[in-house]
Design a protein that fits this description.
Elements (H helix, E strand, L loop, with lengths): L32 H11 L1 E2 L2 E2 L12 E5 L6 H9 L17 E5 H8 L4 E5 L4 E5 L27 H17 L6 H7 L20
Antiparallel strand pairs: 1-2, 3-4, 5-6
């Protein structure tokens, strides 16, 4: 099993970073809300079906768009751009489709409550799901690649995932209600980064 590497602090600047967007597409200058929704919907389609990128659930009534950097955090977003952690041409935090993914309601809640995180691992060229809270129901997904194509022109920004990871680590370390921080640290070594979850072995239609 591979072990997830520590991230450098302070974060490295563009373009010499494992955690930055590697594409050169500047189509973020297109219209806002429609492009945002279309970009996410088209990108998270597998076998012709929109799915949660973690568990593969396909019921549209249980699927939600999740912002990596919350859409209310305009100052955070602008600061990341100013420090060159994000390209200068990206849209607003609310309307940039590379700042969002499709989750089912369960994984949306886990992600927003800082129980799990996703890390782009350059060694495997995959986005990897980390069950940092050691939730027993999430064991089957831990350390496996999620349904994101890193070469897609609208793939999520690895830097945005990294900001969420830092917050997750901090939350579980300091939140006394969390019973599993110590166990979670050990689970980082249990990576199967080159493995896809079973649902992921279907024909893919990348945009």
């Amino acid at each position: 099993m591979a072990q997830i590497s520590a991230f450098p602090l302070p974060l490295p600047l563009l373009p010499h970073s494992d955690f930055v967007y590697r594409g050169d597409d500047n189509s973020s200058t297109d219209s806002a809300t429609t492009v945002f929704r279309t970009g996410i919907t088209n990108g998270d389609v597998f076998g012709g079906v929109l799915r949660c990128i973690i568990c593969g659930r396909e019921n549209r009534t249980t699927l939600e768009n999740c912002h990596l950097i919350p859409k209310v955090e305009k100052n955070t977003w602008d600061n990341l751009k100013a420090k060159r952690y994000l390209p200068s041409w990206v849209k607003s935090v609310e309307h940039e489709s590379r700042n969002a993914v499709t989750f089912c309601v369960v994984h949306h809640k886990l992600f927003e409550n800082y129980q799990v995180f996703i890390r782009y691992v350059r060694e495997y060229d995959r986005y990897i799901y980390i069950n940092y809270s050691d939730d027993p129901y999430e064991t089957k997904y831990h350390g496996k690649a999620v349904g994101l194509n890193s070469t897609d022109r609208r793939a999520p920004f690895p830097t945005a995932f990294l900001i969420h990871e830092i917050r997750t680590r901090s939350f579980l370390q300091t939140n006394r209600r969390s019973h599993c921080y110590t166990a979670a640290v050990g689970r980082l070594a249990n990576l199967r980064a080159n493995h896809w979850p079973k649902w992921r072995h279907i024909k893919i239609r990348w945009r």
